[in-house]
């Protein structure tokens, strides 16, 4: 898909785009359809990205990583989706890095980062959401009680994707009751758990079957003893630590949406040029042109705010307004492009062999997760416009 070359949103990163695209070409639609139908984790794809160093993008070179910034990570994930693949199987290894790098101890970094970088360990699980609290993170009920050199964890997490395929997990738990803290954001702590030693020892992981192959689970903690050294940063300050990670998550997921939108527009435009009905290509009709053109214009705007948010994050800021705006606009345009592409393909869009129905289901998720578009609007109304808090 061509576009006006006004300026390069991520200059100097074309080599990364080309390299990711080369990896993705090894995993065509048939591979993803097989994983989807069998509900399999795309281990071969994840391993291929790891082998080429792309999943170690944000790990500093001193620990064996590439030492790249969030902008480069966003380019990697965008390119994965632009090529018809899905980064949901591995993107957490990028957006969890902010919490570990900014707040982890020297011992934790030395112990885990080199092995994450070389692929011998996977950090793909992020345990935050709970059945009763949902997006209201401050209301979570999972507890971690200090007992000497250990914490004892009890509770439940849900929508914890990739827990079955991850060696490590970032866990947010309450270490002080809500009625015993000075502010609502106090009393929560972050831990870096080694799941390999805990599954079957109080940790139970149960898959949740969903409309997409997302490897999501619920995780139960029953008197799970973890070493005190698993604590990241200062006890009770964990909510602050994950906020920057959540901004990174929103930016990276938004980049995936940009990739999806480009894939749908490429597919839709190619079909509109080639499909002949009533003696002419259907792309000649304005009823076909306009939805694609409008989605393209919206794509250009969304792409600009995604990489603006990434640049602010790379500059050391916590761009909550920009990150949430990026997630909102990118999710909207990926869904808009998906609708246009499916409509243009007609009945063929529902056939599995075209991959549109799979990508259609996959990109629909981003209206809901990792944060719903409605909650983003509430956040922007309060933080950017000064309106009364509605939740």
SSE topology:
Elements: H1 14-24, H2 29-38, H3 43-51, H4 70-82, H5 92-95, H6 97-103, H7 106-117, E1 123-127, E2 143-147, E3 150-158, E4 168-174, E5 188-194, E6 203-207, E7 217-227, E8 231-232, H8 238-274, E9 276-277, E10 280-281, H9 286-314, H10 320-345, H11 356-364, H12 373-383
Parallel strand pairs: 1-4
Antiparallel strand pairs: 2-3, 3-7, 4-5, 5-8, 6-7, 9-10
Helix pairs in contact: 1-4, 4-8, 6-8, 8-9, 8-10, 9-10, 10-11, 10-12
Folded structure, characterized:
With 391 residues, the protein is an alpha+beta fold. 46% of the residues lie in helices and 14% in strands. The protein folds into three domains: 14-117, Orthogonal Bundle (Butyryl-Coa Dehydrogenase, subunit A, domain 1); 123-236, Butyryl-CoA Dehydrogenase, subunit A, domain 2 (Beta Barrel), CATH 2.40.110.10; 240-383, Butyryl-CoA Dehydrogenase, subunit A, domain 3 (Up-down Bundle). The protein has helices at 14-24, 29-38, 43-51, 70-82, 92-95, 97-103, 106-117, 238-274, 286-314, 320-345, 356-364, 373-383; strands spanning 123-127, 143-147, 150-158, 168-174, 188-194, 203-207, 217-227, 231-232, 276-277, 280-281. A hairpin with a 2-residue loop joins β9 (276-277) and β10. The relative contact order is 0.11. The mean pLDDT is 94.
- How many individual helices? 12
Largest sheet: 4 strands, mixed
- Strands, count: 10
Q: Low-confidence segments, ≥5 residues, pLDDT <50?
A: none
Radius of gyration: 21 Å
Q: What's the arrangement of strands in the largest beta sheet?
A: 1-4-5-8
CATH superfamily membership of the largest domain: Butyryl-CoA Dehydrogenase, subunit A, domain 3
Oligomer: single chain
Instruction: Specify the structural class.
Output: alpha+beta
Mean pLDDT: 94
N-to-C SSE series? HHHHHHHEEEEEEEEHEEHHHH
CATH class of the largest domain: Mainly Alpha
